[in-house]
Specification:
- It is built from 4 helices and 3 strands, in the order ββααβαα.
- With about 80 residues, the protein is of the alpha+beta class.
- It has one domain.
- A 3-stranded antiparallel sheet has the order 2-1-3.
Amino acid sequence: MTQKIYIGPTIPGVVTNGTIFKDKLPEHIEKKAEENKNIARLIIPIGDVLEAKKRLNIEGSVEYAAYKNLQSRKGVNNEYI
């Protein structure tokens, strides 16, 4: 697995914004990403982080929509890094 990074909002007990995954996703995150595709959409190859973070601010982009969907959930940290 290529190194990946989570660029979504912090989800307490699940994943923190900016977490880097070196080999594979931890089982609990893999399960949550399967349950909620918006989490999966925000776990990206680390080499794509600059472009993907730009798209977080572009209304209509996949990243923007995924971030906003997760951000709207109760208890989710609403800050960008």
